[in-house]
Design a protein that fits this description.
By secondary structure, this protein is an alpha/beta fold. It contains eleven helices and 13 strands. The protein has a domain of 224 residues: 3-Layer(aba) Sandwich (Rossmann fold). The structure holds nicotinamide-adenine-dinucleotide and uridine-diphosphate-N-acetylglucosamine (UD1). Uridine-diphosphate-N-acetylglucosamine (UD1) binds next to helix 6, helix 7 and strand 8.
């Protein structure tokens, strides 16, 4: 039996495939390569000695998905596939609703048809909206401030309704905080298209000389140094949380949302200082206006993951930054 990994050639998916191979789990990857390339799969083989079975297909393509389930014996699905750029989602909402919501419904229909009713879904801390105080707890009310966040919220609602309708479903929705870092080999990592939106890829491209200076979005928040605070989580820890979540599906029924974070907050300037220390590179920055939609502080309460998955983050900021730097400096142009 194999696990189906949708979006498995992407950033978090590729790291998760490595961890699944490490525990002896067979996988089938499906990806339409909208935001990745098969180079990551070659690198997975370099790391683990094993190449995942790869099917190039869109999760919205029902015939292709049915074909996949017919030709492979799938026990459960980890569903990473989706579009993830917040700014782009405000300009192209239909493409986000189509890929993230309609695509997930198609996947669920095919899973139901083939009686595969175990799923781990990639949700996000963005579902806590901008009204809750950190630490964010799974029981807090959810809301969305942009179409991307809305798609995560809508999919969670669909998953809760589905699990209520049929007790055979076992679903875990992992609410990721801010994934950063890379595999310690330096062979796989985050490879954003164009100018990065997120802090770490931007900082590392400044450090490597691809971008001139970081724009720090606001220094007047009520935080330790006035800059935004987030709960950064090492992508390898996050990948391991998926291994634990798949194991936990056997004992959980219904749909359960679980935070995946460290429970600690780090400011933008603390990240910049740590990056300078680790890389030895200069990171020039300019203080700019606050970015619309940003909030001062976001960090997780991380107890539920410990209780239900037996998982907690093991890697700290030093590893997150040094692994990001190894990936970026070994691959200044990503996988190209
Ligand atoms: P990514 O873009 O690197 O990976 C997503 C993969 O899905 C890509 O390889 C892309 O080609 C593929 N894909 C997109 N639409 C598809 C479709 N219709 N059919 C088949 N494949 C498709 O992103 P990531 O950072 O690895 O994120 C994985 C998941 O985690 C996403 O659902 C994202 O929303 C969620 N998430 C990411 C973060 C983050 O900061 N990276 C935070 C919270 C949640
Ligand atoms: C952003 C998204 C969130 C998404 C997450 C992971 C917004 C409003 N939120 O979260 O929905 O789930 O990415 O993909 O886009 N910063 C800078 N300069 C930069 C980039 C970021 O100062 O060039 C600051 C931000 O203001 C923030 C922190 O760095 O305080 C982290 O930003 P980012 O990496 O974009 O993550 P989030 O804002 O947490």
């Amino acid at each position: 039996m194999s696990l189906l990994i949708t979006g498995g050639s992407g950033y978090i998916g590729s790291h998760t495939v490595v961890e699944l191979f490490t525990v002896g789990q067979d996988v089938v990857v499906v990806d339409n390569l909208a935001n990745s390339s098969t180079k990551s799969l070659e690198r997975i083989e370099q790391i683990t000695g094993k190449k995942p079975i790869f099917i190039e297909a869109d999760i919205c393509d029902k015939a292709a998905m049915e074909n996949l389930f017919t030709s492979h014996d799938i026990s459960a699905v980890i569903h990473f596939a989706g579009l993830k750029a917040v700014g782009e989602s405000t300009q192209q909402p239909l493409s986000y609703y189509h890929n993230n919501v309609a695509g997930t419904v198609t996947l669920l229909e095919v899973m139901a048809k083939f009686n595969v009713k175990k799923l781990v879904f990639s949700s996000s801390a963005t579902v806590y909206g901008d009204k809750n105080e950190s630490p964010l707890v799974e029981t807090m009310p959810t809301s969305a401030t942009n179409p991307y966040g809305q798609t995560k919220l809508m999919v969670e609602s669909i998953l809760f309704d589905l699990a209520k309708s049929d007790p055979q479903w076992s679903i875990i929705s992992l609410r990721y905080f801010n994934p950063i870092g890379a595999h310690k080999s330096g062979l796989i990592g985050e490879n954003p298209n164009g100018i990065p939106n997120n802090l770490l890829p931007f900082v590392s491209q400044v450090a490597v000389g691809r971008l001139a200076a970081l724009n720090v979005f606001g220094d007047d928040y009520d935080t330790v140094d006035g800059t935004g605070v987030r709960d950064y989580i090492h992508v390898v820890d996050l990948a391991k949380a998926h291994v634990q979540a798949v194991n936990a599906l056997a004992d959980l029924s219904g749909c359960t949302a679980i935070n995946i974070g460290t429970g600690n907050g780090t400011s933008v300037l603390q990240i910049v200082d740590k990056f300078k220390e680790v890389s030895g590179a200069d990171i020039p920055f300019n203080i700019r206006e606050r970015r619309p939609g940003d909030i001062a502080t976001v960090f997780a309460e991380a107890k539920l993951a410990q209780q239900l998955l037996g998982w907690q983050a093991e890697l700290g900021l030093d590893e997150m930054i040094s692994d990001t730097w190894r990936w970026q400096s070994n691959n200044p142009n990503g996988f190209e």
